[in-house]
Predict the 3D structure of the following.
Amino acid sequence: QAIEMYTLAKLRRSGEIVEMLPKMVSINDPVVRLRADMSDPAITELDLPLHFTIEDICRQLDIESIEERPVTSFEAMLLMDEHKAYGTIVLAKGQKPERRRFSIAHELGHFLIPTHKGHSEGGFACSLGDLRVEDTREHDRRQRIEAEANRFAAHLLMPPTRIRSALTLRQPDLREIVRLAGEFGVSREAMARGYIDAHRETLAVVILHHGRIDRIYRDKDFPWIGPRYGEPAPTDSITTGHDFQPGQFSDMEECDLETWFGDHSARQVEVLSEQVLVQQNGWATILLNAEMSDS
């Protein structure tokens, strides 16, 4: 018996390769399933399933082992030789599968990005905060390379083109973020960041803990949000005007621009809408959608 295989055989830029990685065959999943007839000229990469194990990719790229240790001083660590000929990834024990997957992809980014030389002798030791840094334009070198590793991990695990092709709703909705997080095998917070990058609308996500702002993620074109980290959510926000139960989604509702913006930011926006998902242990996620002004 023989297997007939097809390739799309198209020239691609190096930056596109990460979005085209196929499913790897592993000892735990040794079966290749035909999901698309690649002889059909109408089939493209976006018709192929995005299923692979991050561990298999690491093994093929000279990561010799992935270990877990009962530590609290870091969330993920990359140990490597000075020439990056081989490496070992060490994870803090007890991470949820979704976070574990992102942590591995983050350290793989450090290993593969040529300009990442290590924070300390022999590699990187990354905190949970490092795994949340977003701005690749940071002047601080450490923060910048952590943001680059996060961007690598995000594009590996949830490429924007794949997210866009998986959307089922035209308008932004937190329910989509929750669904896509499960489909892509990432945390809701990681998918929220990927969703913002991939969506056509201008979005921001605000994470609250016990009613105070803990984290903010926003599209590059989303105006600066008035309330600062650690401050309470605005009194006119949907989160303070309703008694939601954990697991309950609100509808997307239009709100006053002044609820979230100062005067300068408000002048850039025509309409602002917000939606909230209340979670366990005092956490809540707010999705903001800004319809930008043409002026």
